[in-house]
């Protein structure tokens, strides 16, 4: 079994043992993901990146991944596939010759 | 190669072809992740989950994953490992007998 | 003194008594605002709007306002003015005859 | 009329002319606020605070305020009152002698 599948299986098992599928509609999963992204951000608040606590970051990042994998599962999305597809799309928006060494948004390139 | 590793490799290659590592400090990656989580949320705004556009969700979710994988890579974290570890921790916070069918936060259980 | 000015004065006094201006650069204030918006969102997680706790919402909303007013002050912005200006702009994006009873984004109207 | 009241009146008039109250339940308003906070954050992405565009910040901050005022109105909250109340609470969590010149969270003071 691929490891993205293994992650998803473990999350679904955790959810189903607690009978939580009833709460996990995609809108609330997206809320949960956004809340966890905010908690991750808090690890960097009033600090430089170097001063942030890596253990805290690991915990919050794991929560972000958990909700992201659950959402992907809810829409039957293969995580590897959607990221690789997005990279292809972004390669068109950000061609190497234009985007190299430049942090501007594609709309301003 | 595991598929989480494959995803990370593809993201790093995309980044390095554009010489973007210089912008990708962890604090800004956490910002980017939070911004993308907000864009994902926008797919659900003023709508029920059923009315949301799955293609849009796929795109935004892919962006969320991209920054999450880049952050994990920046801290040398194995994505499968940190999610499985977090599930173990959460199993202690949310024991099946207490949490079953209940959406309360562990601090209120 | 107008009440937006009174709010700002009280926030600046609280900040300066603690010598916190050194941490309050606009980028970190924007992070703080986003984190608080996430905490506000948490009051609605896995719930309908009716089930959310109004006292919690009041607390989190106050935090959101606090950072928003501090940011406005940092850029010498008059809160009433910028909101009224934005309403005028939005009136052009969302003309009454087109937008009436419709939740679509202006790009889709 | 106080200026916070004037802001709220202008927002409600804009909303009612478009018959949008039907979409503005508090949960979706909290989503909208969080989305706008993410857009504000985007003004600072991959940049120092000094490099951020003040006009963009003004626009996004105005959107944040708009949803925050609408939410406050939905719960019949007086914005000045809730911010002043929160400052009093925070003064207990962050006493001057402990918090002076220190960016730690009250739980770590």
Please provide a written account of the structure:
The structure is a homotetramer of 109-residue chains. Helix content of chain A is 66%, strand content 0%. Chain A has helices spanning 3-17, 26-42, 54-74, 79-93, 96-99. In chain A, helix 2 runs antiparallel to helix 3. Chain A has five helices and no strands. The first copy, chain A, has two domains: 1-77, Helix Hairpins, CATH 1.10.287; 78-109, no CATH class. The model of chain A has no long low-confidence stretch (mean pLDDT 96). With 109 residues, chain A is an all-alpha fold. The interface between C and D is large, with 66 and 66 residues.
Q: How many structural domains are formed by the residues of chain A? A: 2
Largest Cβ-defined interface: C-D, 66 and 66 residues
Question: What is the succession of H and E elements of chain A?
Answer: HHHHH
Percentage beta strand of chain A: under 5%
Give a short account of the largest sheet of chain A: none
Query: Oligomerization state of this entry?
Result: homotetramer
In whole angstroms, the N-to-C terminal distance of chain A is: 41 Å
Instruction: Classify the fold: give the CATH topology of the largest domain in chain A.
Output: Helix Hairpins
- CATH architecture of the largest domain in chain A, please? Orthogonal Bundle
The number of distinct β-strands of chain A equals: 0
Q: What name goes with the CATH superfamily of the largest domain in chain A?
A: MazG-like
| H/I helix tally of chain A | 5
Rounded to the nearest angstrom, the radius of gyration of chain A is: 17 Å
Weakly predicted, low-confidence segments of chain A:
none
């Amino acid at each position: 079994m691929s490891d993205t599948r293994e992650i998803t299986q473990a999350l679904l098992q955790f959810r189903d043992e607690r009978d939580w599928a009833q709460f996990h509609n995609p809108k609330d999963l997206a809320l949960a993901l956004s809340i966890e992204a905010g908690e991750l951000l808090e690890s960097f608040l009033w600090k430089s990146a170097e001063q942030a606590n890596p253990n805290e970051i690991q915990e919050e990042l794991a929560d972000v991944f958990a909700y992201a994998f659950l959402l992907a599962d809810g829409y039957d999305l293969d995580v590897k596939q959607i990221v690789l597809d997005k990279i292809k799309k972004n390669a068109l928006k950000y061609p190497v010759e234009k985007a190299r060494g430049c942090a501007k948004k594609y709309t301003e390139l």
